[in-house]
Amino acid sequence: MTDTKKLIAKDLLKIGAVFFRPEEPFTWASGIKSPVYCDNRLTLTAPEVRNDVENALAETVKRFYPDAEVLMGTSTAGIAHAAITAHLLGMPMGYVRSGNKDHGRQNRIEGRLEPGQKTVIIEDLISTGGSVIEVAEALREAGAEVLGIVSIFTYGMKKGIECLGEAGLKNVSLTDFDSVAEVAAETGYIKKEDIARLIAFRNNPSDESWINREGSENR
Fold first, then answer.
1. DSSP 184
2. Which among 34, 46, 164, 187 has the fewest CB atoms less than 10 Å away?
């Protein structure tokens, strides 16, 4: 685990942006039962955490995408992060709507985007990768060269990794499911034996056998 992954994991846990509840799973809109709830919008209302996140996003863009010319946020959660990161880097930014507007110029992409411009997508959370892939497709259709994605948190699900790979998209996340779970166990936020259950969920979210798993292999 890198220093950045550990720092952001601690930050997200501290403000409840990532909340583990393996004993009482949350239910996603899809019906899947999950031991974790993630709301990275909470980082925006926690100044110290927000500062860590935005500086880490800026450093990640500089390190992994040094040729980036414009940042594009995902609607709506990625917009504020793209704006702050672009401000820190002195770069232009815009955002991509989930669909075209039904009035005015009916834009889907807001902000100036020139054909061939090297673009990095700023996303707050990646699970299956479906929504960010749609954003990349819209940018490519508009003529942008999409270098990749920088996200705050990723579940690291197999389906998401495969879908991003098939779409030719590279993602660099500040932290991930495994790192947050490890930090949560280290700090007593969850029991150490819960890690195996959490990873079982991560590996196959549709298999609910993790719910009754005792995690004896970690004792």
1. H
2. 187
Residues in the chain: 219
Comparing CA positions, the residue from 121, 106, 112 lying closest to residue 172 is: 121
* Type of residue found at 5: K
For the entire predicted model, the pTM comes to: 0.91
Neighbours of 5 (CB within 10 A): 19
Q: Residue 87 and residue 78: Cα distance in Å, rounded?
A: 14
In the numeric block, the tokens 């807001």 are attached to 110
* Tokens read off for 17: 């942006």
Query: CA gyration radius for the chain?
Result: 18
Average pLDDT over residues 95-103: 69
pLDDT at position 149, please?
98
For 183, phi then psi, to 5°, come to: -65, -40
Question: Assign residue 67 a region: left if phi > 0, alpha if psi is -120 to 50, beta otherwise?
Answer: alpha
Q: What is the average pLDDT across 166-192?
A: 95
Both structure tokens of 150:
């920088």
3-class SS of residue 131: helix
3-state secondary structure at position 2 = coil
